[in-house]
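Closing statement on the magnesium ion sub-project.
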Amino acid sequence: MAEIVKVQGLQKKFGKFQALYDVSFTVGAGEVVGFIGPNGAGKSTTIRTLLGIIQRDAGLVEIFGKDAWKDSLAIHSRISYVPGDVALWPNLTGGEIIDLFIKLHGGGDQKKREQLIERFELDPKKKAKSYSKGNRQKVGLIAALCVDSDLYIFDEPTSGLDPLMEAVFQDEVEKIKNAGKAILLSSHILSEVERLADKVVIIRQGKVVETGTLNELRHLTRSTITLETSGDLSTLASIVGVHDFVQTDQQATFSADNQYINDILLAATKLGVKKFEAVPPTLEDLFMRHYEG
Ligand SMILES: Nc1ncnc2c1ncn2[C@@H]1O[C@H](COP(=O)(O)OP(=O)(O)OP(=O)(O)O)[C@@H](O)[C@H]1O
Ligand SMILES: [Mg+2]
């Protein structure tokens, strides 16, 4: 897979404060990469170095094989970017601003523009200063989605959108993904990342601490298992890999380290399994577990 984005050993200091220590990841063509981490972890700083807005101190940052800082002009004509707080010209209407963004990009799809305005239920005739937060985001999203880019960078794009509009966004991202475009999506809405991302990059205190597909990351964590057996379940509580064991009569619920799942199941079948339920961890479980240590 051709690498659209390549970040290697990225470092960035603001004065004496080291915001990024070691950030490395790639985004391939047709790949949606979820970029997640707690507040202040360095997501937006990473994205701003990708966009050539700020200059890095060390490391490699390439888009389309070009240097993100030196070749930013050439790169920009092929990317779309939506920040979490879209800033607009207050005295222009939403429609005028969308057209301006499209022009700056060197053209866009007019039919798509109309479709998106309709789907996002935006009134394009209103002046930007009268828009709510959610409506400002819609202007940015519509402008970004109706131009044909090779890379879409979203930094908390749906902040302020209601759940219905959030769903429209997800739908539209799926379309560009299916068209083979590359997408870097930073978001605190983990269900959004879970639905869309092929790969997840977790950043914490300026370092990438985990990278992989959701399935790969799930292996690092635990599933929730509910069991009902004929025999005495309490013996399972002390098996290696069993955590948070809770028993009520014939039924027990616990979390199980995926690496010990075979031993746990072998022990359970000896008791005569009557009911078995396993729920894989959500991205949220994974995230929480990671951050709680
Ligand atoms: N221009 C700047 N000057 C000084 N410090 C900065 C600057 N920009 C970012 N920082 C600091 O760098 C760290 C990373 O910030 P960044 O905005 O990248 O975090 P983030 O992961 O995007 O967080 P959030 O989830 O809140 O958006 C923070 O501690 C922030 O205060
Ligand atoms: Mg941010």
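The pocket of adenosine-5'-triphosphate (ligand 1) is lined by residues 14, 17, 19, 37, 39-45 (CB under 6 Å). With this model delivered, the sub-project is considered complete and its resources will be redirected to Aim 3.
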